[in-house]
From TrEMBL:
UniProt keywords, alphabetically: Kinase, Transferase
Name of the protein in its database record: Fructosamine kinase
UniProt source species: Pseudonocardia autotrophica
Pfam families: Fructosamin_kin (PF03881)
Stretches assigned to coiled coil: none
Length: 286
């Protein structure tokens, strides 16, 4: 597998280090750098989407992300981030840096990163990234909730009663979304597994980047249990207020709304166990 690394980076592989994804050392001594390589053969378009997303998320003052050293339609080579331990200080700093990332903005809700494909991915599920001219709630229903709701319902992972509960959220979306906000620059798949703690900082990996609502990234952090989550949220709230863009009143009550999308994605990918969580989130809103 060293051949694609050398082709993408233009450097000679000095050692194969193993691991998953596999790691390689390029060069020796002070010039050495460790990289990882990923294949997207199973999900056509995933590698161009991830590479474009990582580049787009590399905002000065935002959370650190791996550097893309080379990418093509099938392979991505990026810098390796050595594992570390989560700390409360790093969590607070992550929250502050997320405000900078979100404030960098996007062309529109649903807009892909520059150079990113419209047919992108979140995990191993397809995801449509097409700019939307209307309000966030309208786009969220059309491109983030209904496509996965239909798949789950047609496959039988959601029964008619559960599907109807989510449909009611879609019908009431204008009353649930809170105040209008401009499109934010989102990581888009910001669950705890995509936050790497290393060197006293929190790094973001494996994005499903697009233009969306900043509350969506925060709700995703809350979905599967991030260490020191309250410090992240406190750092975010403080920095957002200092920047003159405080989180809108009621944002915590809207967490289930923003979690509907990832829960439906997990239902599509992993089956009906997540369907119950999606329905429960919908019922908390209605």
């Amino acid at each position: 597998m060293s051949a694609p690394v050398q082709r993408l980076t233009g450097r000679t592989v000095a050692a194969e280090l193993g691991g998953h994804p596999p790691r390689f050392r390029l060069g020796d001594g002070a010039e050495a750098v460790t990289v990882v390589v990923k294949s997207g053969a199973a999900d056509p378009g995933a590698i161009p989407a991830e590479a474009a997303g990582l580049r787009w998320l590399a905002v000065p003052g935002g959370p650190p992300v791996p550097e893309v050293l080379g990418a093509d339609d099938e392979w991505l080579s990026s810098t390796w981030i050595p594992p570390g331990r989560p700390t409360a200080d790093a969590a607070g700093e992550l929250g502050r840096r997320l405000t900078v990332l979100h404030a960098a903005g996007a062309q529109a809700f649903g807009a892909p990163p520059p150079g990113g494909p419209a047919s992108a991915w979140i995990g191993h599920a397809g995801m449509r990234n097409v700019p939307h001219d209307g309000p966030w709630g309208e786009w969220f229903v059309q491109d983030r909730v209904l496509p996965y709701l239909r798949i789950a319902r047609d496959r039988g992972d959601l029964d008619p009663v559960g599907a109807a509960a989510i449909d009611r959220v879609c019908e009431r979306i204008d009353r649930l979304v809170g105040p209008d906000e401009p499109p934010a620059r989102l990581h888009g798949d910001l669950w705890s597994g995509n936050v790497l703690w290393s060197g006293g900082a929190a790094w973001l990996i494996d994005p499903a980047a697009h233009g969306g609502h900043r509350e969506s990234d925060l709700a995703m952090l809350d979905l599967f249990g991030l260490p020191h989550l309250e410090q992240v949220l406190a750092g975010y709230a403080e920095a957002a207020a200092d920047a003159g863009t405080p989180l809108a009143e009621g944002w915590r009550e809207r967490v289930p709304l923003h979690q509907l999308f990832p829960l439906l994605v997990h239902t599509v990918l992993f089956g009906g166990g997540y369907a119950g969580q999606a329905v429960a989130a919908a019922r908390r809103l209605t």
